[in-house]
Amino acid sequence: MSDNSEEQTAAPEEGGGEETTTLEFNLRLDGDGRTIYDPAAKEAAAPSKSNDGEEPDAKKAKLDDNTASPQPSSLDYSSKTIMTNLAHLSEDATTAKQLDELLFDCEITDSGLLPRTFWMSANTDTQQQPRCYLEKMALEVFHHHVPSGVYYDPKTSGAEWWVQIRPSPPAGRYSMHANDDDDGEDDMAKSGISFHWDKDEDFRLLTGGSLYIHPHISTVTYLTDLGAPTTVLSKRVDPMSGAYVTDADDDGSMSNVDGLVSFPKQGKHLSFDGRYLHAAPSDLLRDGLFEEQCKFDRPDGIDMKEMKVLERRHRRVSFLVNVWLNYHPYNVHPFPETMISNLSKMDLLGDVRLFDKCDEAKKSGESVTLKLKGEGKIQCEEGSVDEAHADVVTKNWPMGNCSNDCIDVPMPVDLMKSRNAGDDVKLIWRGEDIKLSGTSS
15: pLDDT confidence band, cut at 50, 70 and 90? Predict the structure, then answer.
């Protein structure tokens, strides 16, 4: 366990100079680099009384009402997918309209004029109540992955949420902020997502670029069937230095690297360890497929509003939620109050909840587990693979965050290009076959 406190302060120079703000951060990480809650340490750090004689908020911070004792192991950090009840949208005219409104909400929140991500507090008793359907979704995702019995501080826990849309709309975040001078990363990000780790990005930059505080769990909920598959690798960085971590087995050999490639399908929900490297590489799709998916015929007599609806249906749209426990990422705030009236109300889907009886929702797709060995060989551990698709090619992908680093990953590319919407491909590599080059960013 490490207890890290950082204080940055500077006084103005005599005779002038700029004043600077004092910022203090208190972090408690377990041996796996995850944020933890220690109420004893919190009370020790808090002043004994406030000015009015009452106990200060820090001392009164309560645990989740349903918790009794620390249960960090009850969180499921494995990479997995399930289908939510969003899979049923568009089955009839009423639900198709609901889906269209949800996609419109996503386009609004993806605006390049808004912050990148938004906060939904777990402390709904006193801090924040959901005001729109997207905030309600974010909170449902949080409680699905943080079940009753998990010990955490609700005042510093919650869901960080945002939206990814490809191709990006003209006013979308990527369209407005992409760097035209980027080469490989930019090409990858136009139709997919570059490799990266989820983290408190502003805090990392504030502390010099080497401190990585990760969410406990990262999630992706697909709202359309289109686009690049999310690819998750069990590769991590050291939270204190940002150096790439190489795991070793008891005999000293490099541990295997586990991976999951999840192909989008409306209503499908992917979750994985928030410390893991991930991306959405569009070159795992069949050549030209994404462009085909984004095309649609314009019916005669259609007006501009109806045209926009069709455009939204033919994009890769995903709703992202990072589950944070005992830590509120720096400079992440709730969706602006001045814009909240533009989003659908919490009752958009009536009484439908994302995960209620989700095992009765539509099946996602096929799943296959592969073990990749040296010399381009593949072994099928679960499911079946056409031998014609069994060749392995080493892909060289750029890392994100304006880094010059690259990652080499052996992939059965032909097999990936033969997959359908909703399919999952689980992969196991030898540790030495995944190569990260350069220095982390």
Answer: low
